[in-house]
Design a protein that fits this description.
alpha+beta; single chain; 9 helices; Endonuclease I-creI; about 280 residues; endonuclease; four-stranded antiparallel beta sheet
Length: about 280
């Protein structure tokens, strides 16, 4: 079936019902869309591929140059150089500091490396813009695009997307400290998976040209995210705050945040550790 210039392979289902989906509008070349069942064997663990796809959905760019070469770029702050070094160790590529910006840029452009990358992330990419970029790269590499599967609480994609787009913060509300975990994105569909799997709420902010923010603030929901953190691999500088969640609630229960508390010095020491992981 040809839809919007693409040859589309329907996703198979157990009940025999199939659906078709267009991934963009290219004029010059058709490309096959498959399902996760057609994934090529990759040398990378599935947990790494899921996590990497989350990173790319948040901070990556998969492009085709004017000369027809494919390449990957990931830009992150200075504090996440260790994370980029890990990706470089797994994929190869290069890292350079961006001129005039407090950030590093990772780049991969050799064809063999890009083929291995696509075999790794294909079927895990789900961000609206990134999926279109992936489809264009798949055309050049003559590789069918694989549509993303439904996410579960065991998926490492959430960890990768949090490393790219998430925050953990403490704010005073009604004179009480409140810990929250948040993930931001400009499109609603790119954060609503967090709400479906982990609960919480989604808010819209009109600042910065408008964006959607998923957030969990209740103790129960935050603890659920901490359990997910223990079962998945986070690698960003900010994710180290997950290790401090238990200490936060222990001091909160002691009301150590109150200046009159005998444990107030412990609260101040905690805040010092927390702020050293400024994000």
């Amino acid at each position: 079936m040809l839809i919007s210039g693409f040859l589309v392979k329907p996703r198979s289902s157990k009940n025999g019902v199939s659906k078709t989906q267009s991934a963009g509008n290219q004029r010059h070349q058709s490309s096959l869309v498959g399902t996760s069942e057609t994934t090529c064997t990759t040398t990378y663990p599935s947990s790494f591929c899921e996590w990497l796809a989350g990173i790319l959905d948040g901070d990556g760019s998969i492009q085709v140059s004017n000369k027809g070469y494919t390449f990957l770029e990931i830009t992150m702050g200075l504090e996440d150089l260790r994370l980029l070094r890990y990706i470089q160790h797994m994929l190869g590529g290069s890292i350079k500091m961006r001129s005039g910006a407090k950030a590093y840029r990772y780049r991969l452009h050799n064809q063999l490396g890009m083929i291995k990358l696509i075999n790794c992330i294909n079927g895990n990419i789900r961000h609206s813009a990134r999926l279109l970029q992936l489809h264009r790269v798949c055309q050049v590499l003559d590789n069918p695009l694989i549509l993303p599967n439904t996410l579960s609480a065991q998926s490492n994609w959430f960890a990768g997307f949090f490393d790219a787009e998430g925050t953990i913060g403490i704010a005073m509300k009604h004179r009480l400290p409140q810990l929250s975990i948040r993930v931001n994105n400009q499109l609603l569909q790119d954060v609503e998976s967090y709400k479906v799997v982990f609960g919480g709420n989604i808010y819209f902010s009109s600042s910065q040209n408008g964006y959607y923010q998923w957030s969990v603030q209740s103790r129960k929901d935050v603890i659920m995210m901490r359990h997910y953190f223990k079962s998945s691999t986070f690698r960003s500088h900010k994710s180290r705050r997950f290790f401090l969640i238990s200490e936060f609630y222990s001091l909160y229960d002691l009301k150590a945040f109150q200046p009159s508390s005998m444990n107030h010095k412990a609260w101040l020491a905690f805040l010092d550790k927390w702020n050293k992981l400024m994000i």
